[in-house]
Amino acid sequence: MMSLRPVEEIVGVDPRYHWEFPPAGRGESRRRIRSVWYFGLPLTSAHRGGHSGGGALIEGVDGQERYRDEGTVYPHAGLMEMITYQATYLPEIAWAYHDLSHVPWPRIRAAIAADPPDVAALSVYTATAPWALIVAAEIKRVNPNAVVIFGNDHAGILYREILTGTYGGRLVDFVSTGNNGPFTMLGLLYALQGRLDLGRVPSLAYRRGGAVVHQAAPTFPLNRRILPDYRLLEDQLERHYDKAFAVWYAHHYELKRMVTLPLDGGCTWGDKATRRCKHCSIQGLTPKTTDVAAAVPVLEDVVGGLGANVYAAGDSTLGFSSDQWGGDITYLDELAEACARSPVLRRHRFMLAYGLVYEFLRSAELCRGFVRTWNVGLEAFDPRLLKGDSKGINKGKDRIHEALELARALDYKLYISGIVGLPGTTLELLKSEVDDWLSLAETYRDQITTVSVSPPAVIPGSRMYWEMYNDDPRVRAGHGEIISTSRLTERYIRRNTEVEPADVAAAMAEIARGVITIGRERGGMKFGGYMLGGTDTEETAEYALLNDLCSRL
């Protein structure tokens, strides 16, 4: 049974686990692994009800052709980190990367039938957990001896539910539970070969003797990790991702592709850097950065060699400057200086970085030489809708527009996201939020690449899910390896607002219509949403497929 226990993340090297590769005295492999496949979800056919790549199609709006199954714009950074470690330390094992937002299910199924992998690693989000199980079931059907490992937030949080679940108990052998993906995966591969004790693999959960074993470990420091090598995936960048980038973002950027690098992690929200908001406490996040001296050569190769922009997918990148939190973190200061010195990097504004309104106001001038886009989570315009422990807390419209005007003056691009249907919403407030989103889109259309607005996504790892789980018996009764986010979101809206889910859906549609129309007229701005999960008809089809595959195992 889960409980809400906010804790500060521990970063370090636990000597109980193995972190250095290759292991000393490697020995001979007692089990041959021919191939490892890495899967990024969602599948194209799982684009149901809205998704971050584009958004649900809106009735009565022309010009939405580009919103149909466009696929993701960049490869999955966590999986690329694992691939980079495998290519470095186990080059004799073949690997393959499949992004199922680009490759349709029949082609994946045919590839599995032709030559199934020995090991499959899947990145699992709550909305696409059914599809992760479908892929695992097909692999197990064709190759019963295949080893399946799930990772990412959904699986890492619900590792016990998955490993003991109706489906996961048959399909999933291991779950990666922490922020140590490459060390978990590489250690597991050595263990499967018989070259490392399984008990020395960090952040791993599995079944043993009828019980679930969880080898929890602190986060390995970012400044001692190898950054992903995207040259390994250059053919797929050309085949898939560049085309998606061209559809959505090319006219906003000088460089015509995008990759993601884990340059930092955690958040610095609060009066001091060691204070955690409840969101980051639940997810175990704390400020951490990679070494600038190690990052710059990688950035130069990505920007100068691959010609790619860099999404620094940290939780609060623009908060890592000396002008905030008592001057304890100087990461951005060092990075700005290093980029200015680099003959490659100083010619480009190449980075997309996340930051709260306050953080941007304090770091915008410092970052203007290398940050191209500010990815800002506004959440809402009216402070009455924001809880005091909200990660995206802001001080209202005046502070928001101060930051947006500064972004315009400094020629920043903007990726702006928010939530409609937060606790305390009334019909009057909902209408006001819609008006504010449309006004923002109209005013800053030439700066905005994306307006992404969604209902509250009630997923494991969020404050909303934990509160509902602890307070609502119906949520506990429905808890398991697969979570119906769409149904939970509707229940959350009914319990915490004065509006109905249909009112929130109508507000979303109005914002979407306005953003799409404004974007078509000038600026190319797009609308995005969060993928909550399937509708009843689609979920029924998914379960039918999953059950059929499991019946044939």
UniProtKB/TrEMBL annotation:
Keyword Iron-sulfur attached: yes
Keyword Iron on entry: yes
Cofactor(s) needed: [4Fe-4S] cluster
GO molecular function, one term: metal ion binding
SMART domains the record matches: Elp3 (SM00729)
Signal peptide interval: none
InterPro entries per the UniProt record, alphabetical: BchE-like, Cobalamin-bd, Elp3/MiaA/NifB-like_rSAM, rSAM, rSAM_sf
Domain B12-binding: 54-199
Chain segments annotated as coiled-coil in the UniProt record: none
Alphabetical keyword list: Iron, Iron-sulfur, Metal-binding, S-adenosyl-L-methionine
Gene Ontology CC terms, in alphabetical order: cytosol
Protein name: Radical SAM superfamily enzyme YgiQ, UPF0313 family
Species for this entry: Thermomonospora echinospora
